[in-house]
Amino acid sequence: MTPLLFLVGIALLFWLLLVRPQSRRQRELAHMQSTLEVGDEVMLTSGVYGTVRDLDDTVVHVEIATGVTIKVARGAVGQVVREDGPAPDATPEVSEEN
Fold this sequence. Notes:
Layout: H1 2-34, E1 41-44, E2 49-55, E3 59-65, E4 68-73, E5 77-82, E6 85-86
Antiparallel strand pairs: 1-2, 1-5, 2-3, 3-4, 5-6
């Protein structure tokens, strides 16, 4: 009985420390990417900063310099940038449903 309880405890600890926080971050990122609006300042996952100029369901057109617009997948948007710099936790809290 004790070895089984130990294994269950290790599995629970693994889930609490690794799996649960990662799934929460994925939900927050998906929420942020789905609520993008034209005019938002964004940082792409490649580190490129720009302004959202057009949105489709899966594609975002980002202006990275005056007159230079690139077309990227929505998933390439890493975060929305505030006026005073990138915000590590700029995405709103997503209610956890268990």
